[in-house]
Recover the amino acids of this structure.
């Protein structure tokens, strides 16, 4: 009977020792280099997710947009001449004479030298492709300048005057603003307000406190407004006032987009 009691006690001690060993094994940290799979985390569907990257603080990234509408106050007109002649030298001389007349008219209209920039000059052969074998007809000279007008109310009258002086090429007009920095400042303020409002809403929905911006990137988009022009001279009696080419600059939208990452407290 006494032997049975001793055996039973030994069994109890062994079981207790085994339990202690198991608990100790579970509590010990995994050895270095050991990778274990963690149970997937659960979150409410539709709530903003906050992810952390090793070595970085969690944050909320948003984009904000600001849009400012301005009225253009400068215009750039591309114009010039194009002539053809059987001789390359004659074509070049003819082009030079006609372009001198156009530039002279521009200066009469108050355009300064700094606002007249040559953007194209080329001399090329002109072929007749109506036959099986192309036939050289002569040579073509094209000379174009970009004219900056700081009084856009004179665009229409300027076009009419240069056509009358001999201009044969009118490529188009682009409108812009002489002070894009002012519009950019306003757009930037609107974009940052928009970004802050979005980030603040997301932080409240996620139940966290929004911190200071830790990253800001800006993109500005203000393409110039382009207009194709085809000025026409009205066929009117000699005593009538010639019709002026109508030009309407309209308005221009300057968009500023900022991508901001805010820290989470």
């Amino acid at each position: 009977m006494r032997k049975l009691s001793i055996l039973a006690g030994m069994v109890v001690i062994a079981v207790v020792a085994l339990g202690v060993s198991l608990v100790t094994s579970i509590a010990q940290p995994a050895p270095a280099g050991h990778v274990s799979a963690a149970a997937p985390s659960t979150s409410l569907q539709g709530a903003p997710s906050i992810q952390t990257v090793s070595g970085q603080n969690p944050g909320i990234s948003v984009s904000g947009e600001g849009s400012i509408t301005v009225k253009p106050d400068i215009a750039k007109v591309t114009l010039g001449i194009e002539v053809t002649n059987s001789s390359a030298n004659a074509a070049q001389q003819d082009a030079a004479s006609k372009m001198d007349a156009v530039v002279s008219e521009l200066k009469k209209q108050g355009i300064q030298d700094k606002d007249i920039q040559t953007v194209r000059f080329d001399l090329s052969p002109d072929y007749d492709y109506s036959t099986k074998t192309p036939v050289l007809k002569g040579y073509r000279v094209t000379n174009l300048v970009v004219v900056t007008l700081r009084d856009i109310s004179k665009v229409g009258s300027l076009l009419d005057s240069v056509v009358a002086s001999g201009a044969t090429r009118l490529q188009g007009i682009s409108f812009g603003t002489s002070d894009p920095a002012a519009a950019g400042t306003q757009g930037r303020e609107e974009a940052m307000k928009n970004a802050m409002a979005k980030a603040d809403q997301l932080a409240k929905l996620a139940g966290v406190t929004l911190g200071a911006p830790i990253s800001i990137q800006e993109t500005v988009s203000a393409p110039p407004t382009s207009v194709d022009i085809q000025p026409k001279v009205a066929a009117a009696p000699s005593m009538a006032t010639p019709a002026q080419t109508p030009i309407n600059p309209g308005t221009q939208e300057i968009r500023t987009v900022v991508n901001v990452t805010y820290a989470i407290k």
Summary: Residues 59-70+180-225+251-264 form a domain with the Translation Initiation Factor IF3 fold (CATH 3.30.110.170). The helical segments are 2-27, 88-108, 155-165, 180-206. Strands lie at 59-70, 74-85, 116-128, 135-149, 169-176, 210-221, 225-227, 252-264.
